[in-house]
Amino acid sequence: MSQDNLIKMECTQCHRIGYYSQKNKKTIKARLELSKFCRWCKTHKVHKETK
Asked: Which of 2, 14, 15, 19 has the fewest C-beta atoms under 10 angstroms from its C-beta?
């Protein structure tokens, strides 16, 4: 993955980084929010993009 397009996804409940993803920062300015499975909470939670 290209480092300039790489983003980290953090669980909103336990605040652990569980996913890495890509996005086009030129076309998408807002931070991503996706429902993903958190392996520490053992449930599906909203994951937000972090710096």
From this structure: 2
Question: What's the mean pLDDT when you consider all of the chain?
Answer: 93
User: 6 CB contacts (<8 Å, ≥6 apart)?
Assistant: 20, 21, 22
Q: What is the C-alpha separation between 34 and 42, in angstroms, rounded?
A: 16
**Predicted structure pTM score:** 0.83
Residue range(s) defining the domain that contains residue 16:
3-50
26-47 pLDDT, tens digit per residue, is 999 999 999 999 999 999 999 9
The CATH number covering residue 36 comes to: 2.20.28.120
